[in-house]
Each structure stands twice: as structure tokens, then as C-alpha cells.
Amino acid sequence: MHYFYRVFILLCLYLSTTLQAHAQKDTLKVMAYNVLYLGNGCAGPLANTVAHFNNVLSFAQPDLLALEKVSSIPTSDTDAFGTAPKGFADSLLRNGLQSIPNKTYAYCPFTNYAQANNICLLYYNTQKLGYAGMVSTYSNITDFNTYKLYIKDPYLSQTKDTTFLYITLYRDWE
Q1: What pTM value is reported for the model?
Q2: What span, in angstroms and rounded, lies between the C-alpha atoms of 159 and 35?
């Protein structure tokens, strides 16, 4: 009788670990990176700091990248609070993230309602994640942006079921 229980328990453990192993088909590599005013030249020539940034990304190869303390990017031609070049988020995408092999990136919308000198940016691998929306709130000091992303499951079109990720970014005001 004890033999039957042992076999039964071992069979249950085997099935549960096998089912769990098959359920996890993919992973996300997440990176948060404080870039200390990348974009305004305070850390040296912009070309050098962007080259260093690209070098770090080539090793990390994240699927989700939160950049903290990016120099504020002008949101329009009349935006007087931007300290980085207009279109800087696009240039990081073109000249850094798109050079990572086998990954395609996009970035979520960004805000600067608080008119700060730095902001946060969220980039994501479009092969694994999709953008579903954003809610932005702000105080007098910083914007709090909550992004809604979804996992691009290969069976999404058939199952209509996915996992949503909610990510809140804000810059530290110190």
C-alpha cells in the first residue's frame, strides 16, 4: 500500500512540474535605467553618451526598457521646457534600440505637464508586447504616467485572451 502512495505522489509531482514547464513559454527581460539627463549634454558630448547608452543596451537587450531622468523632450515647437533636442525619443529608437538584433522597438507616449527638466520614457519590444493605453496624472513636481501593455501571445487572435501589464513611471524629484 505504501508503494502505491509513493507512486501516486511521484506521478502528481511529475505532472504538476511538467504542466508548469509547458505553461511558461516566454519571458520578458525588463530594465530600468537612470540615464541622468541623457540628451542635454551635461554628461559630456551627446554622441559619446549615446554611444555608451547603446553599448549598455547591446548587452542587456531588454524587452521592456524604462528610462528615468531623460532630459525633457519638447512636445511641440513652442515648448520652452524641453532641454533635449526635439525628436530625441525617436533618435534613441533609431540609433540605439533598433540596432539590437532580432528585436523591434517602439516607445509609449510621454508627457511633461509638470514642466520639469527631465522625464521618463518607456520602450518596448513590439514582437512581444503591444501598447494599449496610458493614464497620466501629475503633481507640481513630476508626471506620473501609467502605461497599459499587453502580451502578444501567438494564439491571441484565436483565444482573445492575454495578460496586461501596468507600469507606472515617474521621475524622482531629487
Answers
A1: 0.80
A2: 39
